[in-house]
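Q: I have 266 residues here and want to know how they pack in 3D. Can you give me a structure?
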Amino acid sequence: MKHQPTLLISNACSELGQALVSDAAEHFRVALADADGQLGNQLCANLHGNGREALFLDCLPGSSRDRQRGVERVLRRWQQLDTVINLPAPLTLGPFEATQTSHWQRVMDEQLMDTVNLCQSAISAMHRQEEGGRILNVVPEYGILAGPLAGAQSAASAAIVALGESLHSELHSSGIRVTTLVIPLYQEQASSLCATDPLSDARFQRKIARSPVTREELSQQILDALNSGNALHIASGYTRAKWRRKRWFRKRWERGLRELGARYRR
């Protein structure tokens, strides 16, 4: 009997992560990496009750050791690690001068360095496998569409995009495929938004509420993106349309952002 392939999902207890875990369990044996042990173990119990194989990995934000141990646990349990999906941490947004060192440190630890650390641990394991592996780094659209009040978020997300492009070319001949998936804002992430001040929180809560995208749609788009052979994949037509406007009508795009920034600064 052939076993299902294995999948490790970071930030698996996020709103998006919960939807992805449910969908992915139909095709993979799933390892859930997150700091929320209570919810993570409950998700695993639900999967076990439905006859699915699942494993919870307790991983604190910014801990490279936890990510290494998580990969090792997956290998001990299932003897292989086929796919890794790095989901984004909660958005951090607000005026540049209100974004304190602690905000920057959290964004870099929970987003950039957690992605770096899990990629390093996973790639080391995949190099020892005959069939290589698959890594999908998921970032919010600020990684390619930076805007006002999103300095820290844009910097971290853009760094992950650049990391993915580098790894895509470096590892392709080794049988390890790396893609960065850009996703739009989605409705359910409002509950985990990290804003530097109440006004920014209210502004982005409204912006997120207007998003036409839900976590269920994104979950399917993430699974579909596992078949992409590109270094960069933009999941939503909503985000692709904005990306095209930025590339083709650069002056108009920048003028619109300046006007938006001026409104935010009033």
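Q: Anything worth noting?
A: The longest helix spans residues 101-127. The radius of gyration is 18 Å.
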